[in-house]
Amino acid sequence: AHTAHSTGKWYFEVQGTFHPDNYDNGRVGLDHPSNDIDSAVGQGTNSYAIQSNGYRQSNGVFNPTQMTPPLPGANVIQIAWDADAGLLWYGVNGTWAFGGNPAAGTGASVTGVTGPLLPSSNMVSGDFAGNYTLSTTPAQCAYTPPTGFGRWYRY
Length: 155
What we know:
Elements: E1 9-18, E2 26-31, E3 47-51, E4 56-58, E5 61-63, E6 73-82, E7 87-92, E8 95-96, E9 110-111, E10 118-123, E11 131-135, E12 150-151
Parallel strand pairs: 1-12
Antiparallel strand pairs: 1-6, 1-11, 2-3, 2-10, 3-4, 4-5, 6-7, 7-8, 7-9
């Protein structure tokens, strides 16, 4: 099991195949340990998600700015969180969204992100045809963490 973090700089990946016909069913991100496991990531308090349609949801609030590149198909979703600064970045296949740069602390996808938080993913409806694999170790990850960020498994 992974430990929830409240301080530090953390990185993990979710490797997944996202079905292009299902609008927002797949979600990956960070969730507070006390949130209901049956709730969609991003819908609870201290819950942050990128959806399979490329949109973000944080603390139950939908953000209408779509992430580039989009998520349908096979992807590696990268998540970097600076818990001390409250900054969260999403990336896909080696490209950080919204021109972000976690190593420089610029262009965060979400601000005001507080912990404790855990990696989380789920499917919102039963017709989602896809799968996720949480990757935290060097052998599992496709990309190197941004400079200054540790892999989530280090606790």
